[in-house]
Structures
1.
Amino acid sequence: MKKTLLTAIIALTMATAGARDYNFNEMTYSPKATEFLLNTNDDAQGVTLRIYDAGKDGKMLKKVEMKRDKKIAGEWHATIKGDLKGKFYTFDVKYNGNYMGENPGIFAKAVGVNGRRGAIINMAETNPEGWDGGRRSPLIALEDHIIYEMHHRDFSIDPSSGIQHKGKYLALTEPKAIEYLKNLGVNTIHILPSYDYGSIDEEHLDQNRYNWGYDPVNYNVPEGGYSTNPYDPATRIREFKQMVQALHKAGIQVVLDVVYNHTFSIDDGNFQKTCPDTFYRKNPDGSWSNGSGCGNETASERDIMRAFMMASVKYWMEEYGIDGFRFDLMGVHDIETMNAIADMVHQNDPNRIVYGEGWSAGSCAIPSEIMGLKANIKRMPGIAAFSDDIRDALRGPWDGDDKAAFLGGVPGYEESIKFGIAGASQHPQIDYSKVNYSKEPFANNPNQMIAYVSCHDDMCLVDRLKASIPGLTEKDLIKLDLMAQTAVFTSRGIPFMLSGEEMLRDKKGVHNSFESPDSINHLDWNNLKRYPQVFEYYKNLIALRKNHHLAYISDPKFNRTSTAGALEFLPGGDCLVVYRYKNLNELGDKWKNMIVILNGNNDKRTVKLPKSTYTIVGDGDVINEDGIYTLTTDEIIAPPRSAVIMHD
Ligand code: CA
């Protein structure tokens, strides 16, 4: 397996004319000696390696000048004899007579507290008992993914969670957490950034600070704040692996949110201290380009950054058993790099999921034609993008929390809803000129679209509904919430939900909770008792998707040869979208056709149907696959603000 991957990487490296074959193994430990290696710009004048007895402060044990590689100008080496296990190290690179400052290198795999020094450990000793290299049962098909986006702290920090290791990797090893996720039915956990980031002081975890973690420091080390001991370099690594192990054992896959598009700091960052100006893009006037909206943007199109991203993704797969990747602000990266990564990820398993935000947060210093944008997804066939089309058509536009759309009874979003139901793929019944953002299908097939109505960004669904629909009663709030997710989970795209929506979570109206306290971000597990019908609906909705998953088969070659499971839109109206998955029985399903009615209006609507005997399985309040009631008819009353699901 490794050989094949390596071959692929070599082939890719060679395909880029003149590219250096970067070796990112900066520290290789053995009991007899530890080897160090660092990549710098070619004009580096020297690299000083220091060995310490602690991850911070402590005594310097050794200071060594590294030697320039005989063939590669920007590669430096040093070997230190003796057993250095448990010690720490820094590099300090000299340019133009000045040292850039001590740092752990760009590819540290273990670090001390707050990631300021690299740590010398024996990686094999970080493996938990029974670790099998992060392997798991074969991955489910792409279209069967049900993604649950979560933050370690949100999920378990509140006492009501009943989870012991609150806010830690180990929370996801506890039976209570695992059983909860299995019971809900999600099969892919997407964890918010979990590599070492900068905004939480790991020396003062008692302050209980909160952050999403979109401020990378060391890309290839788990964040210390989620471990039980950020001072001991092996602990965070072992506990992260325990988390992956427990989730895999439960048949749940793990997706890592990766944020290669920017770093916490330029001048105080490892990239800049090691290879000045090489990892970041600049504007023509010499200022830093800021396509990330976070003060800088990395340059994926350059050899070293491309090689770095590929090596990093590969490392998380091989060392930690990570199953898929979500690229933050993928639009900042270039298409060639993203395709090279997707090819590598899919080398041994085409069902590994790769998706990203198909936009940037500001203008980038590369042409939009080569950016990893949603509009360019057709040129990135192994990658999916979030559909802001269906998201905003449901909840309302991104530029105003008080603006409503379909869920608020505002007409004009019907074609955008249909666009999302069809998985952003070509469908003859969609008028693309009326779609809110995409004026043509952006996906080659529905597996390239992530269907969602909310994520960590912006308001969560409950807050958005309250903010955009004045005077909403709790009863209607719940109905609209359930209808929104019904659209998501009956879409042909890959469904994605924010953790806690199934508990009717809210964030007290906070729009951007990236550093809000736990009182805003935490899940209140008492809500499961307050709104048991909400959890029950989500659970049954997910089960319905799974049980009739053939309805959502999105393999293009399949759809071309058969009408079985085909998607057809039936006549609707303002804020009324009706669709049918046809001839499911030809696929072995007990149901022939399944119909979904989404009525965003605050009054009931009569919907004309092909005459048949229908069994209603979803009435807006509950889903029951055994049937709520049956009737023979050619029309049905769709209740206000509700989703109806039925079959014949
Ligand atoms: Ca950190």
2.
Amino acid sequence: MIYLKTNEEVERMRKSNDLLGRTLAEVAKVIRPGVTTAQLDKVAYEFIMDHHAIPACLGYEGYPATLCTSVNEQVVHGIPSDKVILKDGDIVSVDTCILLDGFHSDSAYTFPVGEVKPETLQLMKTTKEALYKGIEEAQTGHRLGDIGFAIQNHCEKAGYSVIREFVGHGIGKEMHEAPEVCNYGRRGNGIVLKSGMTLAIEPMIALGKRSILIEEDGWTARMIDRKPAAHYELSVCVRDGKADILSTFEYIKQVLGEHYI
Ligand code: MF3
Ligand code: CO
């Protein structure tokens, strides 16, 4: 069942997403060599609680933290820890969901830590571009496969691989709603998109081969070849002619300044 949101519901989702964008920017402010991923988690938890929202990942299917913090070859669902100390040259993908006024928002951003290798920065840049290419397809009358195709085409042209075990999703009253939004696909395939569908689009793209494994903690997904992976996610509402982007990297951009790529 795909729930089409009313305009009023979309505005509530926009508020949830705005707070999430500001949360990720608070995390961005403290990312530097020497910080632990547990410290990042604390910043996010306190900011969300201070704004009377609910950290929706915390306790979701038993997940133990507010943020997912996935470092370098980890792609998603890395668990924050005081044993994981970020160092110069790392990248860290920060992914989280909040619940505000009955609606979820979901967004992720891969941050550089200090000086990152050009080949890794290029992977990040291409993944973020692919997210926006996917978003461009999120308009009335297009099909779900158009989104996946746009993402896959952009990344594979650059020589990267698309991780297939994790996908984007519908979002709203539930964190994960129908439909699944694959980061690969064929033009013209899949369901027809309708105005009012709200989707979290989230390419997860690898520098090397696409195979992943789940680490012993039962959550962390990492690349088997230990090459880096990037992950960017925004939530959007399907509209006539142009997707309405509900979440925003604007606050992150303000914090990162010239390091925003
Ligand atoms: N943004 C992540 C997703 O869509 C949220 C995962 S929450 C977790 O899968 F609790 F499952 F980690
Ligand atoms: Co998501």
